[in-house]
Amino acid sequence: MRKPHPLTRSALWLKRCMLAGLALGALGVQAQGLTDNPDWKETEVPAPPAFSKDHLLAIEMPHYVSLKFGVDPATLAITSDGIVRYVMVATNASGSVNAMYEGIRCATGEVKTYARASNNGVWSVVKEPQWRDFSDNLPSKHAIAFARQGACDGRAAAASSAADIIKAMKK
Q1: Which of 16, 89, 95, 109 pairs with 22 at a CA distance of 20 to 30 A?
Q2: 164 φ, ψ to 5°?
């Protein structure tokens, strides 16, 4: 009796993707409701919070990134609209600090920068901030790294709480 031909890696991957798609369709999962909801509105954005450099949760970045990134856990918030808001602190080799007050919309894979602060810690609010896709050509990929390391629960939703984000970041 002849053995069946083994599937190549790409054929196996394709088969798994198709099965997953069928399973989600059969379950009636409505992911589009999260990403394509025409009625979705961002909640009012609070003023940029004060931040500290003393207890940052480190973000693992590729070896070629010279800046060190960390999130101030005291600034983490998940709002009712599904946005994870936080202060990201970037430090260079000489110790100079820049901070960004940002929001991640996990359901759509987007990030928005609301304000920036330099070494003096004074916030400069971004006029008309825009949502940008994670795949945009950003100067740094810190937002997607943060999303993958704890801000988002998979690719569909924000983590359930700030405590869950902190726990995931400390693993």
Answers
A1: 109
A2: -65, -35
- What's the predicted TM-score (pTM) here? 0.76
Contacts of 29 (CB under 8 A, 6+ apart): none
Is the predicted pLDDT of residue 32 greater than 70, yes or no? Answer: no
Angle at Cα 115 formed by Cα 143 and Cα 48, nearest 5°?
A: 100
Cβ–Cβ < 8 Å for 83, 104: yes
Are 101 and 123 a contacting pair, CB within 8 Å? yes
Pairing verdict, β 110-117 and 123-125: antiparallel
pLDDT tens digits, 72-86: 999 999 999 999 999
At 40, is the secondary structure helix, strand, or coil?
coil
